[in-house]
Amino acid sequence: MNKKILLKVIKGNKDFQVLDITMNGLLDPEDIRNLQLPKGIDYTKGVIISGKSPVWLFSYLVHLLHISKWVATFDPRKGAIVVQSHDSKSPQAGDVIPLDDIKHYFGIHESTNKIKKKPGKRKNKIIAFVGPPHSGKSVFLNLLSLKLSKRWGWKNFQKYFYIIRACPDGEGDWYHDVPEQLGTTLRYKTAFDEGFVSETVLGIKTASENKKILFIDCGGKIDKKNQRILNECNCVIIVSRDKSETLKWMGAISSSNLELLYVINSVLTKSYKRISKTEYELGPLIRFNKGKRIPACKIPYNLADALIK
What is the pTM of this model? Predict the structure, then answer.
């Protein structure tokens, strides 16, 4: 039995079933060796793969499921996206099974560290991470996500949290785990145009239907396109290296009627200082300095815990 990759079959309808993935901590490629599919899969139906996991694990599971009628992967922003099919009368590669048709079939990850919701609180938080360029927003978001996953467990993190990159800079979670030059080479920037914004807005609306907390990694400019994205959020965290820029962003978020959760003053020196209940000075929020990796900045537990109250 693989203790780091837990696979569970969830019964669907007459057309498909769900293969649910739960990771127990960070995975290594060697973890897929001898990984076996669980019993109970009906290969005469389609299979929807769901869960947070590396791309290579999804790819391997698609390979293992190749004899099934069709295979799809679940995207909380869109639905189930079909990636292979062996039946002309079934959904074909590129087809999308709408979220509303499938979301009630998905299982709930159990954990002893359940996130408790207070009565009267809204169902979810859509938190925008904003601030001027080169302030360390993406680094802070990555460190905060790691802190939350450790604090509340990987199972809950996969179940309740989702990150949407609302800036087309090509920096995903992987970007923080590779050497600086390699990350710069591999990332692929796209245009920050109306098409990208519309896709992002739709993704936020769809993902908010089945995730309790969304982290929205926003671009560093105050403009109409970013304002459209902010209008879909209900909370905000400002990460800024310049106090005058912080004031500008406060003006921008006020027009979207967002709840300001925290202001993070980003500094280049090592710092871990609480200024007030909603303001911290943290640093350095950078990955490298002259090609050398910088030790990760500490993220306060009380800051992370407050996000899920």
Answer: 0.67
